[in-house]
Amino acid sequence: MLRCGLLGETLGHSYSPMIHHELGEYDYRLFEVSKEDLDAFLCSDRWDGLNVTIPYKKAVVSYCAELSEAAERLQSVNTLIHRPDGTLYGDNTDLFGFLYMVRRSGIDPAGKKALVLGSGGASVTVKAALEQLGADVTVISRSGPDDYDHLDRHADAQIIANTTPVGMYPHNGAAAVDLRRFPRCEGVLDIVYNPARTALLLQAEELGIPHAGGLSMLVAQAKRSSEQFTGTVIGDEALERVERTVNHRLRNIILIGMPGSGKSAVAAALGKALGREVVEADELISQRAGMSIPEIFARSGEETFRKLETEVLAEQGKRSGIILSTGGGCVTRPENYPLLHQNGTIFRLTRDLAKLPTEGRPISQATDLAQLCARREPLYRRFADGTVSNDGALEVTVQTIKEALL
Ligand SMILES: Nc1ncnc2c1ncn2[C@@H]1O[C@H](COP(=O)(O)OP(=O)(O)OP(=O)(O)O)[C@@H](O)[C@H]1O
Ligand SMILES: O=C(O)C1=C[C@@H](O)[C@@H](O)[C@H](O)C1
Ligand SMILES: [Mg+2]
């Protein structure tokens, strides 16, 4: 079996093993190697093919007996092949990956003014790709004339490409720039892939600007690398298939709906059917407060409950692959939407009002359910990616959600 893997310093975040598992029949491991051990590792025969990531893409260049044209030009290697004669060949498949990401996004940089945020390793590749596609590129970095304090000079930018780690897990929610400063912006590209929708992309979505995240780039660069590991060409149709598979596996499934509409029951059944972890937001809130939900309402009031709820949703929303059963009122706070939406597909459950239990549910007891439902209806609709009736058997609801995920 070919021994491949990803070389870097800290790799816990990487989706590469999952992607390569979908692409080919070889062993793919994470090689976390410190700077002191890099030389010994590269010269060892512990591997046949590698992807290289931060902070080693430049450091490995000097080890290569031969470089591809792209690796030579960018002086950055993300694919290393151990050749039979013992020498190393280096390629840069990130360039192909980013070009694919742009193509797939439908955003056309030709003849447009583009800002590349960040001047680290990935910036060079993204700049080269955008220039290859005909854009006029300015790199924004933390120092120099085009820094973040002088963005007004570039208010006419039409394409924004983020290559910084701002907003990347676990620092979700941050964005390198506020897109409202670029009224002519018509395309936003963020190479970060975790979360699926960074704060920058969520803002682009809100402003109606076409946008794309980094997963398609990650999959495309992996495909190109995989072809070189094995010497076998992989059809382009694999790109969308693998992206879909990874997306499907990592996406959170979020359930919202009226108190008692069945979120907890459906989440538990769905968790069993899909073999996924189920998280009950209310349980975490009550653990955090050290008392039950009715007690929080009685002692500290709804405001305190909502604040705790937002904290819990911020923590859970940035996770991947979970099923999250929320409290019925989470939609009353607009700031909860990006927390749930960044990595999740949000399903709203509906159930006959007459069937909704009110026991242990302070809001349902204090209000007329029909009025509550009328008030909440537009809020649920605003949050939901899809609405699923839970009026039939639980299994039917579960099946409907499973099908909607495909
Ligand atoms: N499809 C269904 N068929 C029969 N009973 C159901 C169905 N869905 C939910 N129930 C029942 O309805 C009750 C309320 O469901 P559940 O506690 O899951 O709602 P919830 O939306 O999580 O409520 P809350 O907002 O208070 O957390 C439970 O007794 C549950 O077993
Ligand atoms: O996070 C990852 O798994 C990777 C990121 C990029 O640096 C890629 O160039 C690398 O091949 C894999
Ligand atoms: Mg519940």
Give a short summary of the structure.
It is found in: Cytoplasm. Its main location: cytoplasm. This protein is of the alpha/beta class.
Give an overview of the whole structure.
This protein has 16 helices and 16 strands. The strands form three sheets. Strands 2-1-3-5-6-4 form a six-stranded mixed sheet. A five-stranded parallel sheet has the order 8-7-9-10-11, with helices on both faces. Strands 13-14-12-15-16 form a five-stranded parallel sheet, with helices on both faces. The model has no long low-confidence stretch (mean pLDDT 96). The protein has 406 residues and is an alpha/beta fold. α7 packs across α8 (237-250), α10 (281-289) packs across α12 and α11 (293-300) crosses α12. α6 (199-207) links the parallel β10 (187-190) and β11 (211-212). The chain folds into three domains: 3-92 and 218-247, Rossmann fold (3-Layer(aba) Sandwich); 107-209, NAD(P)-binding Rossmann-like Domain (Rossmann fold); 251-405, P-loop containing nucleotide triphosphate hydrolases (Rossmann fold). The structure holds adenosine-5'-triphosphate, (3R,4S,5R)-3,4,5-trihydroxycyclohex-1-ENE-1-carboxylic acid and magnesium ion. The site of (3R,4S,5R)-3,4,5-trihydroxycyclohex-1-ENE-1-carboxylic acid has 8 residues, from loops.
What is the subunit arrangement here?
single chain
Strands side by side in the biggest sheet: 2-1-3-5-6-4
Largest sheet: 6 strands, mixed
CATH superfamily of the largest domain: P-loop containing nucleotide triphosphate hydrolases
Binned, the helix content reads 40-55%
Number of helices: 16
